[in-house]
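User:
I study polymers; will you set down one protein's sequence and backbone structure tokens?

Assistant:
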Amino acid sequence: MAANIKTIGVVGTGVIGVSWVGLFLARGSRVLVADPGPNVKQRVSDHLRSIWPLLERQGLAPGASISNWEFVGSSLAGRYHEVDFVQENGPERIDIKSRIIAEIDEGTRPEVVIASSSSGLPSSQFIKDCKKNAGRVLIAHPYNPPHIMPLLEVVPNPATSKEATDTAMAFFTALGKAPILLRQEVRGFVANRLQAAISHEAFSLVQRGIVTAKEIGPFMKDVLGGGANSGGFRHLMEHVGVAMEDWLKDMAAHSYQYSEENLNALDSSVQEMLAGVDIGRLEEKRNNLMIEVFKAKASAKALV
């Protein structure tokens, strides 16, 4: 049960993994961290110090501490018996995830949920080597950075038990996440597929010289998702539905082709847009703004 989850194992401490560590700590959990990479303890410690002020602004759980974590080595071997939940954040490769998930399955208690942060690989593709209980493995795909973004896709595979799914949903809800349960596996899940479709067309428009990377920004931030009412969808489709079919045909005819030449052209436009921009400062401003946006949405439920 979610209420019994006190100690969390985090395997893999890239950008997503270390962000999970921060969120778990901020919600009062104890965290055991494993990663085979170099300088993990120092890197995690530095990152936690950088994001802790944001977590404080969001509100810490009673007893939450930035120091309530331990780096245990390249894996959780020898410490698996201590964890009540595992969040895996390994590379997006079936062979690597299969090995990691099989080891976690072997070492943990059979009721412990194993959640993978996989960005697009369904968990059914990497549970074949689980011998103890493959029914507690599922996807918990966050959006970057997980310690701020509330959206989370929970994706069970056909073998995942209802108990494991219910536990994961309750656990992530208690963390302050807004988990969405996908009813069946699909490659890329939902948000990434939507993003891929939009990004693909954006790439095509820039590659064709219709707009630059900088000029396409306002369309993305000021138009998509804006302006709606109770009859908005029907009104939209009645007026432009037929035209949309033509637009889609034209989009297919000019589909962006992934080649080195096209990539270089796109990157040139992006680098021109970012010239003189302090990326670190930009990320800081973004994170602060997202917190304010989510607070505003929480106080205006009709807009959520």
The longest strand covers residues 137-142. Residues 225-229 have pLDDT under 50 and may be disordered. The two ends are 28 Å apart (CA to CA).
